[in-house]
Amino acid sequence: MWDNxxxxxIEVGVLETLYMTCMSTFFGYVLGLPFGxxxxxxxxxxICPNRIVYRILxxxxxxxxxxxxxxxxxxxxxxxxAIVGQSYGSSATVVPLVIAAAPFIARMIESSLKxxxxxxxxxxxxxxxxxxxxxxxxxxxxxxxxxxxGVTIAIGTILGYSAMAGTVGGxxxxxxxxxxxxxxxxxxxxxxxxxxxxxxxxxxxxxxxKFANAINHK
Amino acid sequence: MAQIEISNLSKKFDDALVLKDINLSIEQGExxxxxGMSGAGKSTLVRCLNYLEKPTSGEVIxxxxxxxxxxxxxxxxxxxxxxxxxxxxxxxxxxxxxxxxAFPLIIQGHxxxxxxQKAREYLKEVGLADKEKAYPSKLSGGQKQRVAIARALASxxxxxxxxxxxxxxxxxxxxxxxxxxxxxxxxxxxxIVLITHQMEVIQKICDRVAIIEKGNLEEIGTVTDIFTAPxxxxxxxxxxxxxxxxxxxxxxxxxxxxxxxxTNSTYEPVIANxxxxxxxxxxxxxxxxxxxxxxxxxxxxxxxxxxxxxxVTQYLQERNLTVSEVTEDxx
Lengths: 218, 331
Description:
The structure holds 2 protein chains of 2 kinds. Chain A is mostly helical. In chain A, 82% of the residues lie in helices and 0% in strands. Chain A has helices at residues 4-42, 51-66, 69-75, 77-84, 90-114, 118-126, 131-142, 144-165, 172-183, 187-214. Chain A is elongated, with a radius of gyration of 20 Å. Chain A starts with a helix and ends with a helix. Chain B has helices spanning 42-48, 72-79, 97-107, 112-125, 141-154, 171-188, 199-205, 223-228, 233-239, 242-250, 270-278, 306-318; strands at residues 4-13, 16-26, 31-35, 57-62, 65-66, 82-85, 159-163, 191-196, 208-213, 216-222, 255-262, 283-292, 295-304, 322-325. Chain B has a 6-stranded mixed beta sheet, with helices on both faces. Chain B has a 4-stranded antiparallel beta sheet with strand order 2-1-4-5, with helices on one face. In chain B, strands 12-13-11-14 form a 4-stranded antiparallel beta sheet. The longest helix of chain B has 18 residues, at 171-188. At the A-B interface, helix 6 and helix 7 of A face helix 2, strand 6 and helix 3 of B.
């Protein structure tokens, strides 16, 4: 059973999982970072308070975060097909992963930015800094350690979601675990894939935290 | 026209009126103190000077421009000439000392290289040239405030606002920071507006002082005048500091008189002669000399009986000493 094709299949699974995780994290931040910044600055204690904008984004984030991922995956099938051209495989899984991850990432960005000392923001204002300068040169810089910790958490969560997408033909290690381990009772394959998933999360967590500490001067 | 004109300024937070009809003018080049207990509204007042807080009514006119007339962009430009330092320093924790000092220049659109070069000069000015690579978390409070002062100087301001700049520092460090502020005032002719709750700070470096209490401007004058003869109750409370006031209060004398004199004003042993003249003892409750803006001032509180009070007052006033009765509102 542990022939070359099985090993090759697991190798492909690992690569697909990495591909989905990295692509989804990247695009998740492409959407989630501005989303989170707007949440943080339009909050009533933010630098450009705007009740209406904040309320709308707040509700959107809450709705998207409360839909279970599996349901989102199915709901988004037409949308995924329109973007990727097919609704199965690892590229297709990236679409719902990004939609699920973005509001979660936005919330983490929002909370990281809100941790920045109000006194430092006030100092920047007193020097004549405008909102854009405060965001790019104060908020994002001062919050970078907290943001890096957030990226580590996001990667772990997205990796877990990507495995869940396996149940509906999403590709990657989760897909293998479900098809071989669960449907065919090949428990050894299931165990190997699960161990690999655990290892990947460990590696990302370790590297992420090392990086976050390395850039912290506080 | 004065460099900073505040007219009929009031500020409300929700329903609380924290500043009531403040009128004040601050001249170019002076060190102007604003003193009050915490909650008096002084931090709000200083933030009205660069519109970090917008007054509810009234005007702030800085160098001829009413801040309320300025657009957001024009206000930001105006702030570049009004630097500010803070009680908790407010340095960027993730940038090193050099980049902190260069920061206002970066905001003003200078390139990084020029900004750093200028920043180095100002670091030298505050005596921290060797710390440029250090991060703020590795510095002491006094060093952090020096970095903040260098950062304030970097934007080449005309006015420096100090919000409780020495309140988080120990007495020695406070003295050295005040010394530095005085040097800056003299060297660059920067007007300094200094907010504090510590009378010692005012005495040490300010030319003039305004006393505010519960949002009201109680008294304004030269530091020497206010120290010698405070007119308002708030002024008297601030001149006699809390610990001393407590001790004095406990002494059950009938009347207490405070006299102020220049230590070198007379060679006559006034009190001794007065006692000989009265042929009755008076009780010296408290005596001290204080450095008020560079001159030593003597201060003494006498306990006298009610029958002695008018004769003692007259005797001392004839010898050109300032005498005022210390009433129970002290402390």
